[in-house]
Every structure is written in C-alpha cells, then in structure tokens.
C-alpha cells in the first residue's frame, strides 16, 4: 500500500469574485493563482453583490443586500459542513456589511475553524467611533473573538492593536504582481512624458482630488484614470478636469488584462 499523503490544510475565502471588476475581486483572483494553492485547498464563498448598484462612496443598507447576506452566510455554513475548512478568511468592507461578516467570524469559530478578519479600507477606526454604543460593543467583541485581524493601513493596524491586542493583528498591505506587467522599462532610454496610471473608482475616498492636484502641479506628465465613476463626484470635478484636459483622461472600467 502506498503511504497516505498528508492532507493539505483547507482555506475558505469569504471574498468577492468578478464581476464587478474591482480591487477586492482582483485580490481574490490573485490569491487563487498564487503559491497558496500549493499549500492549501482553496475554496471561495462569493460575496459579490447580486444586484448592480450605482457607484457611491456611501454605505447603504438595502433589501437586496440583506438577501445577499443571507445567501452568503448560508453558503458559509454549507462549506463549513461539507468542506470543513481549517481557516476561514473573511474580507470585510465593514460599514453595513460588518453585521454579516461579524456573524461569519462567530459561526466559523463555532464550527472549529480559525477565523481571519481582513479589513478592506482605511477608515475602520472612524466607522467604529461613529457607531452606536451597542454596535461598538458588538464590534469590539468580534475583534477579540477572531483569531487574526489583518489591517490594510497603518492607522487601522494601530487601532486594532489598541482594541484587541497586538498579538492577533497583522499588517498586510495590498500586493501587485509585478511579473504580470513584464520587464521594468528603462526610463533612461525612453522618450516622451512620464505616464501615470490610476485604476479604481472615481471617488473622493480613493484620493482622486489629490491625484488631480498632483496633475495640476505636474503639467509635463500624462495621467490616465481607469474605472467606474460616481456621477455626482464627476460633476463636482468637471471644472478641474476641463482645466487639465490636455494631460488627464478618463477611461471606463475594463478587464484587468486590458489594464495591463
């Protein structure tokens, strides 16, 4: 009889997949295509919304999102029973979704899996401080119940360390697979103006105001902004874009392969 190979650990991701195209779905695909697939059995509960809503920087609780939350939590329980993961990695945009994602942490721990809560944004401390006292207590209890808390930014890391202790907190900034973009160009042998590419939602929260301010101070560079727009913010920025029209252009959202 051949010796039985050791079982790879099982990792379940609660994370969005395309569509829509976005930072977290791209992250999910990057993880699935990484070397983690050699060390873990990977599976995903897709948290992408079932209804396409208007691009907005505001978080809104809607009926379709409640239905999505029930679908996602049901998928989590199904995978906990069938797949029996060792680790459940929950990508959370928090705000209205934190109720869903917090429940996911507690349910994963109930089934004996280790729970990782990954905060996909830079304003988590502000979100907690703006919450009601009852919600704040529930948030803090969830932070202390998770096995690991993954911070995307330095301020979030410090806040999580103060709230849940430094032992459970890890700082994990977003990654870029540089090999996808080919060899690094040799600037010394290149003619023409510097090219600046921004890929993301055209929102104030993404730093678009600051980017356009940089474009105003760097008239010798060309800026290309790729991604979906929020109509109200686009209207607000139109005078600035008109001034910068000679070296700033907007392109709609497109597949990652086309961006590359």
Instruction: Please give the alpha-carbon distance between the first and last residues.
Output: 49 Å
**Total of helices:** 10
**Reading side by side through the largest sheet, how are the strands ordered?**
2-1-3-4-5-6
Along the chain, the helix and strand elements come as: EHHEHEHEHHEHEEHEHEH
SS strand fraction: 15-25%
Helix content: 40-55%
Number of strands: 9
Over all CA atoms, what is the radius of gyration?
A: 21 Å
Principal-axis shape: globular
Structural class: alpha/beta
Mean pLDDT: 90
Low-confidence spans: pLDDT under 50, at least 5 residues? none
Q: What's the main sheet like? A: 6 strands, parallel
Show the helix and strand layout.
Blueprint: E1 9-15, H1 23-32, H2 36-39, E2 40-46, H3 63-82, E3 87-92, H4 98-110, E4 114-119, H5 124-129, H6 133-145, E5 148-151, H7 154-164, E6 169-171, E7 195-199, H8 208-217, E8 222-226, H9 231-243, E9 248-251, H10 256-259
Parallel strand pairs: 1-2, 1-3, 3-4, 4-5, 5-6, 7-8, 8-9
Helix pairs in contact: 3-4
Write up this protein.
- The chain has helices spanning 23-32, 36-39, 63-82, 98-110, 124-129, 133-145, 154-164, 208-217, 231-243, 256-259; strands spanning 9-15, 40-46, 87-92, 114-119, 148-151, 169-171, 195-199, 222-226, 248-251.
- It has 260 residues and is α/β, with parallel strands linked by helices.
- The strands form 2 sheets. The protein has a 6-stranded parallel sheet, with helices on both faces.
- Strand 3 (87-92), helix 4 (98-110) and strand 4 form a beta-alpha-beta unit.
- Helix 3 runs parallel beside helix 4.
- The mean pLDDT is 90.
């Amino acid at each position: 009889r051949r010796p039985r190979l050791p079982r790879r650990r099982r990792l379940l991701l609660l994370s969005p997949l395309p569509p829509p195209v976005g930072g977290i779905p791209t992250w999910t695909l990057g993880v699935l295509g990484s070397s983690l697939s050699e060390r873990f059995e990977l599976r995903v509960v897709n948290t992408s919304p079932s209804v396409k809503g208007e691009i907005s920087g505001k978080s809104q609780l809607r009926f379709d999102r409640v239905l999505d939350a029930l679908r996602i939590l049901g998928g989590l329980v199904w995978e906990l029973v069938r797949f029996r993961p060792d680790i459940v990695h929950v990508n959370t945009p928090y705000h209205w979704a934190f109720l869903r994602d917090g429940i996911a942490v507690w349910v994963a721990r109930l089934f004996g899996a280790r729970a990782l809560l990954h905060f996909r944004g830079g304003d988590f401390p502000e979100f907690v401080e703006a919450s009601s006292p009852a919600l704040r207590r529930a948030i803090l209890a969830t932070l202390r119940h998770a096995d690991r808390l993954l911070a995307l930014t330095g301020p979030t890391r410090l806040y999580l360390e103060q709230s849940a202790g430094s032992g459970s907190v890890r700082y994990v900034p977003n990654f870029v697979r540089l090999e996808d973009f080919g060899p690094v160009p040799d600037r010394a042998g290149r003619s023409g103006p510097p090219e600046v590419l921004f890929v993301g939602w055209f929102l104030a929260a993404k730093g678009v105001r600051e980017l356009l301010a940089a474009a105003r101070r760097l008239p010798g560079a060309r800026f290309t902004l790729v991604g979906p727009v929020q109509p109200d913010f686009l209207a607000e920025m139109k005078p600035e874009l008109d001034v910068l029209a000679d070296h700033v252009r907007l392109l709609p959202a497109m597949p990652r392969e086309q961006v590359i």
